[in-house]
Design goal:
alpha/beta, seven-stranded mixed β-sheet
Length: 323
């Protein structure tokens, strides 16, 4: 289907407004030849999860499965973000970055899902093996940016453009919001699909799932202005070194704290760290850097925290605001 041009689509490819040309192959070579990557553990102890159970009527339950994959349980149903369950993030079960720690549980352990939200097509967010398994076990709605029909077999697909809202259930809705990132799943496939974050409006509050994004003050200010108060923000804090290469794609923890403040989020939780080594920082660098950034910005540890993989947190609907 032919799409109309817009401020983020030129008729052939999507782009982030005002962003310079994407880094090319020579930049990748420079990074790899100059990299001083920290050594991650080959394996880490498997998580001991509290398997998901229906949340109590007055609370929102969040379980971190790993990386950017969360199970969000609400009175409006069960929601899954960016499913990644495989042992590697790549085009094949034996190709790609390996997990240092397994998923908290497997697809077969998931409760019946109301919806899956998929931020973009990178392998560490869009795991086709997991998606196919979910579609077989629990056919459900899949909410994506534009261009994901070929990756959605077995789902009821809802493609959204930036700022578009779709009613999900009588008491919930899904909205796609911009993100400063990019897409590519194959050679020649750069930015043929759109990417983004999601606003999930639930009876218990408004949840912002950022997907992958670099920092942009205008972006987070616009999300706050157009989407209203954010009760819970799931923000990436990993895969950020070296900054000369990664700053156009991923926030570092200090920038994530700035995003938290710009959004006016009552509670933020860090994600996209501690699961697979994508960049040069150490395994445990993101939470340590987050603690330093919080202290410098005067943000409480209760307001922006990290979870253990497999941890389940129940959040009161008031989601009491912290500094």
């Amino acid at each position: 289907m032919k799409r109309a041009t817009s401020d983020h689509f030129n008729g052939k490819r999507f782009f982030y407004p005002g962003e310079p040309a994407a880094r090319g192959f020579l930049d990748v070579l420079r990074w790899k030849f100059t990299s001083r990557a920290a050594r991650w553990p080959k394996t880490l102890p498997a998580p001991s999860p509290v398997l998901p159970v229906p949340p109590v009527r007055s609370e929102l339950a969040i379980t971190w499965i790993g990386h950017s994959t969360f199970l969000i349980q609400s009175r409006a149903g069960n929601w899954l973000t960016d499913p990644f369950f495989s042992l590697r993030a790549g085009p094949h079960a034996k190709i790609g970055a390996p997990r240092a720690i397994p998923a908290a549980f497997q697809v077969g352990d998931l409760p019946s899902l109301t919806g899956v939200i998929l931020s973009h097509d990178h392998y560490d967010h869009c795991d086709q093996i997991a998606l196919k398994a979910i579609a077989r076990i629990s056919p459900t709605a899949l909410y994506t940016p534009l261009g994901y029909e070929s990756l959605s077999a077995g789902f009821v697909l809802h493609e959204l453009d930036w700022w578009e809202v779709r009613k999900a259930t009588p008491s919930s809705s899904v909205q796609l919001v911009p993100a400063r990132h990019w897409c590519r799943r194959s050679l020649g496939g750069t930015n043929v699909r759109l990417w983004g974050g999601f606003i999930l409006r639930l009876p218990e509050g408004t949840v912002y799932f950022a997907g992958d994004t670099a920092f942009d003050e205008r972006l987070f200010s616009a999300i706050r202005a157009r989407c209203g108060p954010i009760d819970l923000a799931l923000l990436p804090i990993g895969a950020y070194e070296p900054r000369w290469f990664m700053s156009d794609s991923h926030m570092n923890p200090a920038e994530a704290v700035q995003a938290h403040k710009l959004l006016g989020s009552k509670l933020s939780i860090g994600m996209h760290w501690g699961t697979i080594q994508l960049t040069d920082e150490a395994y445990d660098a993101p939470p340590r850097a987050l603690a330093e950034a919080r202290a410098q910005a005067g943000v409480s540890a209760l307001a922006f925290r990290v979870m253990a993989i497999g941890e389940r947190v129940e959040i009161r609907p008031t989601m009491n605001a912290q500094k």
